[in-house]
Amino acid sequence: MTVEHITLTLVLLTFAIYIYIGWWSKVKDTSNFFVAGKEIPAVANGAAIAADWMSAASFISMAGLISFLGYDGTIYLMGWTGGYVLLALLLAPYLRKFGRYTVPDFIGDRYYSNGARAVAAIATLFISLTYVAGQMRGVGIVFSRYLQVEITIGVLIGMTIVAFFAVLGGMKGITWTQVVQYFVLIIAFIIPAVAISLKLTGIPVPQLGLTFSSLAKDLSHLQIELGMNEYLAPFQNLSALNVFAVTLALMIGTAGLPHVIIRFYTVKDVRSARWSAGWAIIFIALLYTTAPAIGVFAKYNLINSFNNEPVEEVRDISWVSKWEETGLLQLDDKNGDGLLTFSGDDTNEVIIDRDIIVLSTPEVAELSPFIIALVAAGGLAAALSTASGLLLAMSSAVSHDLYYRIIKPTASEKQRLAFGRWMIFLAVIVAGYFGMNPPGFVGEVVAFAFGIAAASLFPAIFLGIFDKRMNREGAIWGILSGLSFTVMMILLMRSSQIFGTETQVMESFLGINAQGIGAVGAVINFAVSFIVSRSTKAPPEEISQMVEEIRVPKVSEEKSE
């Protein structure tokens, strides 16, 4: 069987499992639809959190970013993992103790305002739409290479599958699907990493292969010889200011992601929420400690596979011709000497999209067709698991927070459930459009979503827990100022991709690029929130007492809920 046949078989098998879980876990009430009845075991919720959080950006794109950015690429490791620890230790237990369905629910009740609820719901839509665009592009890339279909067709197939199990099963169906998807994606990530580590270093554990071999130093020397930046030296691709800003934006953005936060509402109590966070850290560490090794191994292998090799011989390699057909790999013999040059200047004749590094690594390392197909299935699992969580976050923001809590509080259980399902359908269509027209590569688009979360929801959540004096006026104006500034800056700095301008309207803001601008937005949010809250009336006494109770241990959860 060819790689394509095995891939198709594996993909169909995993899709059949996802669809069966959606049908098996179909729900008939809003509690199961929005928070899975708060009955998910801690270890299963940990796996679901890991799958929800480790998106196509983590699986497909992060190793590619490290591959091309070298030392500077570690900002994604530091930002995303640091942010998760921040969320797990600083915010999640308190949010679970508060006991609501969504992040806008928390903000609306904490700030005693439907205006704050509406603003938080709008911010959730901005964050989730930006994030899901990256996931849908990841789905399209996998389908275009391994099933030889257009990226647009691949996105449509992914939309259909994720809509089925999300609409039927809601949070319950999504949770159990994500548990399965976690094990698919982690097996698919680890096995090729072990194989390529064994091949290049003789050590089967990728982390040890990277640490105890000279491969990283060899790659660094090789890149210098070829006119590229020194791989192991800092600030070669990003300035120190951008390294700090992007890391901070990713970190606090992670702690403000609505689709991850609502996962802590699906367990029965605060103790289970803490255990969920612990399990998730273990599950996430498996992938995040492996990604740097894959990044180094893949770059080293690719340079040796292309540089100074005859163009026609390279094109005769099966995986090269197939990636070329997708447009994500381009070979151009500029000087006509018949040999490829892989360099860091204008003489470079090999253009590789960073999103194909992980997906192409098994083929470059000449691993078995089954492992190649497994990686494709893993990439789809990563993208679909996060996409489903984002779709539910968007559906909840509109159907629960805007429709039920503001527009029609008298809506029946049946009406709320039907509205929630229709919102998922609508969200899938919008997500598909952005997946077909993304404003950047997967990791970059996802970084924009983290920046928007950092600038809008994180300050409101943090201050809602730790600042009794913060009031509704401060929260609303803080969210609006941080959100509008960050979205405007991203649009101006990506105007050529989004609006088709010849050049970007702005390259940076005070030297900070689009991926790090969320850090500036967060500072603006904090500053505006503080100034406005201290200039207006203090919150009611019962709100101050509620904030105290959230933070005090051993207060009965029944009382707080």
List the helices and strands and how they pair.
Layout: H1 3-24, H2 30-35, H3 42-53, H4 56-69, H5 74-98, H6 103-110, H7 114-146, H8 151-201, H9 206-212, H10 215-225, H11 240-254, H12 258-261, H13 270-288, H14 291-306, H15 311-315, H16 318-326, E1 329-331, E2 350-352, H17 357-364, H18 369-407, H19 413-436, H20 442-466, H21 472-493, H22 495-498, H23 517-535, H24 541-551, H25 557-560
Antiparallel strand pairs: 1-2
Helix pairs in contact: 1-8, 1-18, 3-8, 3-13, 3-18, 4-14, 4-18, 4-20, 5-11, 5-13, 6-7, 6-20, 7-8, 7-18, 7-19, 7-20, 7-21, 8-18, 8-19, 9-14, 10-14, 11-20, 11-23, 14-17, 17-18, 18-19, 20-21, 20-23, 21-23
Structure described in brief:
The protein is mainly alpha-helical and 561 residues long. It contains 25 helices and two strands.
Commentary on this structure:
The chain has 561 residues and is mainly alpha-helical. 74% of the residues lie in helices and 1% in strands. The chain is globular and about 75 Å long. α7 (114-146) packs across α19 (413-436). The chain is built from 25 helices and 2 strands. The relative contact order is 0.18. Strands 1-2 form a two-stranded antiparallel sheet.
